[in-house]
Specification:
single chain, alpha+beta, two-stranded antiparallel sheet, extended, membrane
Length: 351
């Protein structure tokens, strides 16, 4: 082939089958035409053709607009389908969609009378973090889409280096990029930095310093950090490298997968092989990035879980467990008295 090949700007555009129409557009128009023809065949003995044409024109026009219309480059039938799915989808997403235990009978009169919302499962990209079979690395299970390892990378002060050092650093990093045989995600995340613990530790340890000048310097530094935290939005940046391995199934499994159909999980053998490939890729990255003064540290299970939780809620600086109540704990709007906690059935609750 010597001639140029035309590549559309939208590479995800559906194929045009007939008269510039896609398969879905043709299906929608053909179904509407067949429906109208069937209705005319069933009613032509009682309805004149002009009357049926007047009644069928709005339906045909709506089908044409729905099949051929677009909004911001998206077909209208896709927008309508998304609106219908959104209308009938659960309004609240929870990690465990199983129904909760019913409240005690003595709390029913005081409970809300509104209808309980329909709950749905959260389509989280990760289903859990487990330790690797060999080592302490935290392996992120991508809910049937494979597994991943997360490594924290140190930063390099590029501005204070000479021109020769700049070329050496860029060359070392370029060699690592050139050696990649699988995708690697480089993530630079920023999170609010809470200095409360550091300020408290400085003020507690200042009186125990061996010299009054050191104590004064520690107190002044604590005051400086307090002023800095109160007047500046402090951010802490972290560079992460995410290594991912897609699931590999047997060659006999050639059945097509629907777009919304989840992938099947990896068996033990495939998972062990994927973990071995991930660890090998991480070790190669450690060796290749060392000449660039970049140190990689593989995150364990707790650290990887903390990174995922921070990515889902980046504004949260404290521990989530401290603000959560026990599932069996009764939540009240005020401190109830012992008389209010005695129910008519003879059960007594402890405040």
């Amino acid at each position: 082939m010597n001639g140029p090949a035309r590549i559309p700007a939208d590479v995800d555009r559906e194929d045009r089958l007939l008269a510039g129409l896609t398969a879905r557009q043709l299906t929608l128009l053909a179904a509407t035409g067949a429906l109208l023809y069937g209705a005319w065949a069933a009613t032509r003995s009682i309805l004149a053709l002009p009357v049926f044409a007047v009644l069928a024109t709005p339906i045909a026009a709506a089908a044409l607009v729905l099949a051929l219309g677009q909004r911001d480059g998206v077909a209208l039938y896709r927008l309508v389908g998304g609106a219908v799915r959104h209308r009938f989808s659960p309004r609240q997403r929870v990690a465990d969609p199983t129904p909760a235990e019913p409240v005690p009978e003595w709390l029913v009169p005081a409970a809300t009378t509104t209808k309980a919302p329909r709950l749905g499962a959260v389509a989280a990209p990760a289903s859990g973090v487990e330790p690797a079979s060999t080592g302490e690395a935290g392996v992120v299970d991508l809910a049937g889409e494979g597994i991943a390892l997360v490594a924290a990378a140190s930063t390099v002060n590029f501005a204070l280096r000479t021109q020769t050092e700049h070329e050496a650093l860029v060359g070392a990093f370029a060699r690592y990029l050139h050696s990649l045989t699988a995708p690697v995600q480089i993530l630079i995340r920023a999170q609010r930095c809470d200095l409360t613990d550091k300020i408290t530790a400085l003020r507690e340890q200042a009186p125990s310093l061996p010299h009054p000048a050191l104590e004064t310097a520690a107190e002044e530094h604590a005051e400086f950090l307090t002023h800095l935290a109160g007047h500046t939005d402090l951010l802490r940046r972290q560079v992460l490298l995410v290594f991912r391995e897609a699931p590999t199934h047997s060659s006999a499994d050639t059945r097509p997968r629907r777009p919304r159909q989840p992938r099947r999980g990896m068996d033990a053998g495939a998972r062990h092989a994927a973990e071995a490939r991930l660890l090998r890729r991480v070790n190669e990255a450690i060796d290749l990035l060392a000449p660039a003064s970049i140190r990689l540290t593989v995150l364990d299970t707790a650290q990887a879980t903390h990174v995922l939780a921070g990515a889902c809620n980046p504004d949260h600086t404290g521990t989530a467990e401290a603000a959560l109540a026990d599932p069996s704990e009764v939540i009240t709007t005020h401190h109830a008295t012992p008389d209010e906690l005695v129910d008519p059935h003879g059960w007594e609750a402890t405040p």
